């Protein structure tokens, strides 16, 4: 079974939602048969790499919130994060482009280190003092800590085209699947969970997707005898088709 | 819609079956929405890299065929290949390990050149005079011709661990899906086609998979109001959960 999670590093509900999903996954009896894939989604795809600002002024400017509203939202997120055992800085967090982080996550996907890296990025962005934006060396550190090769990570960060198509493809796919916000969870391309729902909802989604996991329906010609195929005993040699 | 094709370069029915599938795909009205992924399957996974032999003696030794039977099989394959417009050498073809080719195909997958490379490999193996086995330089040529970077291809071939896990994972998955021979086609993980079936069977499978392509079923908490998610208008801040 495959669970795809569309999310953004700059998305607090993605950070919280991932923990809720994982709580459900930990007690799911078939968890060893579940493959988790992280997919890219930028909340702020047009933000320039060097356009970094503190979260509260960004929220007031971009979404027209009052400073008090924005701060209350952060406090609420802090409470929700704490309930999942996550650290969350409710003050002086930065906001910026996450494009390079998504590109790096695609490298990590190929190297089997995606979950390690996204966890490092979330933690760095939401829990730690030092900003994760506009600092390639910081990203390289987090990548190496996640098990990636330093030179390889550096090379990807230095080349803006590296994995750019993969990020865009994920984003197009999100739109096709009807996701206009994140986190967005897709189970076997059959069930969707939108938002940081409670762990019980994820548990239910896992159960439902598992129950409807059906064997392949084989399609073949009515007249077909031996399939024209090669296997451990050699290649079939039907004389008539 | 995603079509996964498990196949082996040393599998003549895979070569023929791919052409039959493509004939069906060409006339499928939604062909632009079909993503094709090639997956690894070795018919002879235990063969050493340096163990290369002509096909006919291999068939007689491995499967206990008479030389005449083996040659008749090759002639039949030549006829079937010709019917699909494919060249096929019925004599003096070699057999050997395809593990390195599968590793190279995983690199090509990441670079978006998988179909080009598998086509080159099939053609080189089945239609051309020079053996494709035990000759890394030949594989590099075919990779470059498929649009891969020469150094990158060479590096993968030189490192037996590169993409080895990916090859094994594909093979495990084939077993889990019930494939014990190739070619094996899987449409959206819902429909399967085993063997080089006639183009009409592939056309029917494409139609059936397309028709059953259903939108995601969303799962959410009964009590859930606003999803705790971030979108283009900011992050939802529900006060009550």
UniProtKB/TrEMBL annotation, chains A, B:
Q: Which UniProt keywords apply?
A: Isomerase
Annotated DSBA-like thioredoxin domain ranges read: 3-206
Question: InterPro entries, from UniProt?
Answer: DSBA-like_thioredoxin_dom, Thioredoxin-like_sf
Coiled-coil stretches noted in the UniProt entry, renumbered to this chain: none
Question: Mind telling me which Pfam families this protein's record contains?
Answer: DSBA
Please give the Gene Ontology molecular function terms for this protein. isomerase activity; oxidoreductase activity
Query: Which top-rank group of organisms is this from?
Result: Bacteria
**PANTHER family, sorted:** GLUTATHIONE S-TRANSFERASE KAPPA, THIOREDOXIN SUPERFAMILY PROTEIN
Q: What is this protein called?
A: Protein-disulfide isomerase
